[in-house]
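Dear support,

Our group has been running a series of protein-ligand predictions, and this particular one with phosphoenolpyruvate is the one our PI (initials K.S.) wants archived with full inputs and outputs. We had some confusion internally about which version of the output was final, so please treat the block below as the authoritative record. The input we submitted was:
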Amino acid sequence: AQQRYATIRKEPALTLCGQRIALHMNAGLMADLPSLESSGAEGVGLFRTELQFLVRSKVPKRSEVAALYARVMDAAEDKRVVFRTLDIGSDKVLSYMKPQDEPNPALGWRAIRVGLDRPGVLRMQLQALIRAANGRPLSVMFPFVAQLEEFRIARDHLMCEIDREGRLGRPLPEKVEIGAMLETPSMAFSPRQFYEEADFISIGGNDLKQFFFAADRENERVRRRYDTLNVSFLSFLEQIVKRCEDTGTPLSFCGEDAGRPVEALCFAAIGLRSLSMRPASIGPVKHMLRRSNLAEARAVIDTARASGAQSVRPAIMDWLRRRD
Ligand code: PEP
Ligand code: MG
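Confirmed final output from the archive:
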């Protein structure tokens, strides 16, 4: 199988019906960057910046943070890297942060909520990103945005830092893209302005799914209880795809499910055109997409949905078995 994936490494993820799906990789450490070349990923769709903070015993200095981002951008050369600002709290706890005794940490003070309430670290991180870009393009994504206003305030912090760097006479990024992760169901129903103002949106499927089904992603008893290919969840994702199509907002999906070939095929069939996954999944997902006709997969999904099935998985698996 490894051999098979190696032969398509430089080929695009082009489906039998001629649709191109962009495949990006998730990363979080400098050590992940060589995979950009070996996996054939088009770029880094999600760089989890919290890993650098998690391995330390205290908050890293701005210069250290900027140095890491610059090395990541250097290693990526002209491929796009989407930096997600700190997503701490919940399952990612910093040893040097005062423990928050929260009854439900996943629903608690985490990610952009911490960034907006205590903007010091967020602003330091944004400065580090601007400095690391040093005249190159910059893509920043805010995690766990649950209402439009949070996105706007986070974006204003970034604009403010760009202004400030400019006044200090430092080189500014050639262009800046500001995106949001869509990880709470609320954003699927947000005002249209969210979709218009975000330069791009990335579905954080791990969190979105846990909140959609009210099933803790960390709890072994329930984490696999609801299928990602459950018709309700697929229809929900499809609504997000439609809203992004209406406003022309680039959309991707960066949760673990994007790296599962059958799930990736179904996501493409309902209209997703960009997926970000762990590097080792790029080959298998690309192989699946290149053998598939999305209109046919879509018809199987629609028939299963109309039949009252709980999940489209049995129908898709049956179709794949007959096909291959
Ligand atoms: C997600 O929630 O799907 C995601 C990509 O972010 P994380 O897994 O880091 O929460
Ligand atoms: Mg998440």
